[in-house]
From TrEMBL:
Residues 408-490, 497-576 form the PTS EIIB type-1 domain. The chain crosses the membrane at residues 20-38, 44-70, 123-143, 163-186, 206-232, 252-275, 284-302, 361-382. Keywords: Cell membrane, Kinase, Membrane, Phosphotransferase system, Sugar transport, Transferase, Transmembrane, Transmembrane helix, Transport. It comes from Nitrospirillum amazonense. This is PTS system N-acetylglucosamine-specific IIC component. GO terms for molecular function: kinase activity; N-acetylglucosamine transmembrane transporter activity; protein-N(PI)-phosphohistidine-sugar phosphotransferase activity; protein-phosphocysteine-sugar phosphotransferase activity. Residues 7-394 form the PTS EIIC type-1 domain. It comes from the Bacteria. PROSITE patterns: PTS_EIIB_TYPE_1, PTS_EIIB_TYPE_1_CYS, PTS_EIIC_TYPE_1. The active site is at residue 430. The lineage of its organism: Bacteria, Pseudomonadati, Pseudomonadota, Alphaproteobacteria, Rhodospirillales.
Length: 576
C-alpha cells in the first residue's frame, strides 16, 4: 500500500484529487440558485439563470480551480493561466472541428452558418470539464516550473509569473489541435465509454459505489466521481450524471441516489453503534464527537470523519461498508429512484432537489432499513471480534500545552503536533483533510493531533501526511499557515529548552526513567511508574505537549530539537 501511495504521489494523482475539490465547492450555490429559481419553488427566472450560468461554464471554473489548487501557495496567477489555456484550447478546437455533412445537408446561407456554429459549440461543450481539468493541470504545473523564470533584461517584463499565462496559451494550442482534429475519435470514445458504463446496469453501479468508498483511502474517489458526474451520458448537450439530472434528464441520478441511504442513515447509525459499543467510562468522551459527525453526515453528506474512525482500526468492517454502498446503488436503481445533489447526499440536497427527483419518498423506507442494517452489523462485528475501535481502544492521553495554543491558537497547536515549524514543508487541504508534505512524518505526534480534533491519519509515504478533520480542514490549514508565517521569535519556548533537572524531577526522578529516545523535536520515554509523572509541571516548564500513547510510554513535544534534553536525561538516568 505504501508503494502504491508513493506512485500516486509521483504521478501527481493525489494532488489532482485535492485540486478538484476547489471548483466542486461552487456547485452547491449553483444548484441552490438553479432550483430556487424554478417554477415549483420561487419561480424567479433570473435566479435560475444565475445558477445555470455556473453549470454552463463548469469547464472554465475547473480550469481556474484546478490550476490554483495545484500551484504553489495556491497563487492566483495560475488561475489566470488556466483561463488562458482553456479559452485557447476550446475556441481553437471549435474552429477545427469538422461538421458532418448530414448536419448541414440542404442548408445554405445564414442557416448553414448557424447550424455549423451550433454543432461546433455543442461538440466542444461535451468536453468542457475534461478540457478545463487538463488546462488547469497544465497551468498549475507551468506555474510551479516557471513562476521564478528569469529572462534577459530586455525581456524581463515577461519573466516570472507573467510568463506562465504565455506558456499556458501555447499549451492550449496543443490541446486545441488534439480536441479539434481528433474530435471524431474523442466523440466515439466518450460515447463508447458512456454506453458501456450505462448499459452495465446494476453491476456497473455496484462497482462504482464499491470503488468510491475504497478510493477514499487515497483521496482518488474525486477523480472517479468526476467521470461519473460530468462526463458519462449526453442529454441535449449536458454530459455527466449530475449535469444531466439538473438539465431534466429523467434517466439521470443513478450515480448519486445510492449515496443517500448510506450518508443520511447508514453512517449515522454506525455512530450510534460506536457509542453503544464504547466502554461506559469512554461514552461521555466520544458521545459529543460521534453526535457531531452523525449530524454532519445526515445534513451535508460529509462522511470521511466517520469512516476514518474505523477504516484502519477495523478494515473488515470498512470493507462491509464499501459493499453496502455498492448495494445501495443497486437497490435505489431497482426501485427506480433518481436523486441528485450538488455537493453530497445529505438532507439539505435532498430537500432542495426533491422536486426534480424521481420517486424520492422511497428513500425513507430504504433509509430506515439501512439504519437498522448498519447499526446491527456494526454492533455485532465490534462485539463479536472485540475490535479496538473509537471508544474501546486504550486511548493515549494527549495534552497540547496551553503555551503552544495561546501563542499560536489552534494553528500553533497543530504546528507543535506536526513536529514543529521546521518539519512542515507545505500545507494544503481538501474538503475534509489536511494534506501536507513534511521533512519526516515520523516526528508527528498522533496523540496530540487526536487531542486537536484529528479523526485519522494517512501516511502515503515518508514525507506526506494527511489528517482527517472534517469540514473544518481548510480553515485549519489557513490557521497553520498563519502560525508558520509568524517570526521565529514569536514561537513559544526558547531554543535553549526547559531545565533538564526540573524536567527530570517532573518525570519522577532518574529512577523512574527506563528509556530515552530523541526524535526531531520529540522525546520518546519509557517510565516505570506513569503515576509519578506530573504532566502539569512539564507543561509549565515550557514543553509544548505531553502524550501517553501506551502504559509506561511517554512522549514529550518540544519547541526545538529534542536531542540536547534527551542527552541530559540519558546522563541523569545513567547517574552521570
Amino acid at each position: 500500500m505504501r508503494d502504491r501511495f508513493s506512485l500516486f504521489e509521483r504521478l501527481g494523482v493525489q494532488q489532482l484529487g485535492r485540486a478538484l475539490m476547489l471548483p466542486i465547492a461552487v456547485l452547491p450555490v449553483a444548484g441552490l440558485l438553479l432550483r430556487l429559481g424554478q417554477p415549483d419553488l420561487l419561480g424567479v427566472p433570473f435566479i435560475a439563470a444565475a445558477g445555470e450560468a455556473i453549470f454552463t461554464n463548469l469547464g472554465l471554473i475547473f480550469a481556474i480551480g484546478v490550476a490554483v489548487g495545484l500551484a504553489r501557495e495556491n497563487n492566483g496567477a495560475a488561475g489566470l493561466a488556466g483561463v488562458v489555456g482553456f479559452l485557447v484550447a476550446t475556441q481553437g478546437a471549435q474552429a477545427l472541428v469538422r461538421v458532418p455533412p448530414e448536419v448541414i445537408a440542404g442548408l445554405t446561407g445564414s442557416a448553414l452558418e448557424a447550424a455549423s456554429t451550433s454543432y461546433k459549440i455543442k461538440a466542444v461543450a461535451k468536453i468542457g470539464v475534461p478540457a478545463g481539468i487538463l488546462s488547469g493541470l497544465l497551468s498549475g504545473g507551468l506555474y510551479n516550473r516557471y513562476s521564478d523564470l528569469k529572462l534577459p533584461e530586455f525581456l524581463s517584463f515577461f519573466g516570472g509569473r507573467r510568463f506562465v499565462p504565455i506558456a499556458a496559451g501555447i499549451a492550449g494550442l496543443g490541446l486545441a489541435l488534439i480536441f479539434g482534429l481528433g474530435w471524431p475519435v474523442l466523440e466515439a470514445g466518450l460515447d463508447g465509454l458512456s454506453r458501456a458504463v450505462l448499459s452495465s446496469g446494476e453491476a456497473g453501479l455496484f462497482l462504482y459505489g464499491l470503488l468510491n468508498r475504497v478510493l477514499i483511502i487515497t483521496g482518488l474517489h474525486h477523480i472517479l466521481n468526476n467521470v461519473a458526474w460530468f462526463i458519462l451520458g449526453d442529454y441535449h448537450g449536458a454530459t455527466g450524471d449530475l449535469k444531466r439530472f439538473f438539465a431534466g434528464d429523467p434517466t439521470a441520478g443513478g450515480f448519486m441516489a445510492g449515496y443517500f441511504p448510506v450518508m443520511m442513515f447508514g453512517l449515522p447509525a454506525a455512530c450510534l453503534a460506536l457509542y453503544r459499543a464504547a466502554r461506559p467510562d469512554r461514552r461521555a468522551a466520544v458521545g459529543g464527537m460521534l453526535l457531531s459527525m452523525a449530524l454532519t453526515a445526515f445534513l451535508t453528506g460529509v462522511t470521511e470523519p466517520i469512516e476514518f474512525t474505523f477504516m484502519f482500526a477495523a478494515p473488515a468492517l470498512y470493507a462491509l461498508h464499501a459493499v453496502l454502498t455498492g448495494l445501495a446503488m443497486v437497490v435505489m436503481d431497482l426501485l427506480g429512484v433518481k436523486l441528485g445533489f450538488t455537493f453530497s447526499a445529505g438532507l439539505v440536497d435532498y430537500i432542495v432537489n426533491f422536486g426534480k427527483a424521481t420517486r424520492p419518498l422511497l428513500l425513507l423506507p430504504v433509509g430506515a432499513a439501512y439504519f437498522a442494517l448498519y447499526y446491527t452489523v456494526f454492533v455485532v462485528v465490534i462485539r463479536r471480534f472485540d475490535l479496538s475501535i473509537l471508544g474501546r481502544e486504550a486511548v493515549p492521553v494527549a495534552v497540547v500545552s496551553a503555551q503552544a495554543v495561546a501563542a499560536g491558537g489552534r494553528g500553533g497547536g497543530f504546528v507543535a503536533a506536526l513536529g514543529g515549524a521546521g518539519n512542515i514543508r507545505t500545507v494544503d487541504a481538501c474538503t475534509t483533510r489536511l494534506r501536507m508534505v513534511l521533512a519526516d512524518n515520523r516526528a508527528v505526534d498522533e496523540a496530540a493531533l487526536t487531542g486537536l480534533g484529528s479523526r485519522g491519519v494517512v501516511r502515503p509515504n515518508a514525507t506526506a501526511l494527511q489528517v482527517v478533520l472534517g469540514p473544518v480542514a481548510d480553515q485549519v490549514a489557513g490557521e497553520i499557515r498563519q502560525a508558520l508565517s509568524r517570526p521565529a521569535a514569536a514561537q513559544p519556548m526558547a531554543a535553549a529548552g526547559p531545565d533538564a533537572g526540573a524536567v527530570l524531577a517532573a518525570l519522577g526522578g532518574a529512577g523512574n526513567l527506563q528509556a530515552v529516545e530523541a526524535r526531531a523535536n520529540r522525546l520518546l520515554l519509557g517510565v516505570t511508574d506513569p503515576a509519578r509523572v506530573d504532566d502539569g509541571t512539564l507543561l509549565a516548564l515550557g514543553l509544548r505537549g505531553v502524550a501517553r500513547p501506551a502504559a509506561g510510554r511517554l512522549h514529550l513535544l518540544l519547541g526545538g530539537p529534542a536531542a540536547p534534553l534527551g542527552d541530559a536525561l540519558t546522563l541523569a538516568r545513567a547517574g552521570g
